[in-house]
């Protein structure tokens, strides 16, 4: 009879989730492989077997956080109305951040000294927004996506830090800001002076 596999995907996910909770809740000094293994009910051997060590664990945590987050954004169906699509992406962004705040912190802060994130991984967040901009025929969809990201990230960060406590207000501001932005970039500007 084959030996059961104990270092599986479920254990990997539990270790990543707990590592994110430790980093976001107690800081980088709280993340030791021994404590992580004990908290999850496994051995340090299992952690080394799955990740190879702490630097690789942190890297995998960062990449996994962006993949999960990006998957939530790509699940948003397109309506054909770019303004509404941006609003829905912004709301999905907020839901993703609120669902896994411990991972959101890892994605957008320097939670571990010496860890250098890569920009390719962050494309999981910007990609869906750039796509909506392209479909809308915007002249600079990348800049539009960065602007939307800044608005949404700012509001979500304020909410997660306890500066904005009215969830209804956050959603209303998010909707108004995204709808207003998408209308302003979609409306062509006059190319001649009205005084000519």
From TrEMBL:
<feature type="DNA-binding region" description="H-T-H motif">
    <location>
        <begin position="32"/>
        <end position="51"/>
    </location>
</feature>
<dbReference type="InterPro" id="IPR050109">
    <property type="entry name" value="HTH-type_TetR-like_transc_reg"/>
</dbReference>
<feature type="domain" description="HTH tetR-type">
    <location>
        <begin position="9"/>
        <end position="69"/>
    </location>
</feature>
<keyword id="KW-0238">DNA-binding</keyword>
<dbReference type="InterPro" id="IPR025996">
    <property type="entry name" value="MT1864/Rv1816-like_C"/>
</dbReference>
<dbReference type="InterPro" id="IPR009057">
    <property type="entry name" value="Homeodomain-like_sf"/>
</dbReference>
<keyword id="KW-0804">Transcription</keyword>
<dbReference type="Pfam" id="PF13305">
    <property type="entry name" value="TetR_C_33"/>
</dbReference>
<dbReference type="Pfam" id="PF00440">
    <property type="entry name" value="TetR_N"/>
</dbReference>
<protein>
    <submittedName>
        <fullName>TetR/AcrR family transcriptional regulator</fullName>
    </submittedName>
</protein>
<keyword id="KW-0805">Transcription regulation</keyword>
<dbReference type="InterPro" id="IPR036271">
    <property type="entry name" value="Tet_transcr_reg_TetR-rel_C_sf"/>
</dbReference>
<dbReference type="InterPro" id="IPR001647">
    <property type="entry name" value="HTH_TetR"/>
</dbReference>
<dbReference type="GO" id="GO:0003700">
    <property type="term" value="F:DNA-binding transcription factor activity"/>
</dbReference>
<dbReference type="GO" id="GO:0000976">
    <property type="term" value="F:transcription cis-regulatory region binding"/>
</dbReference>
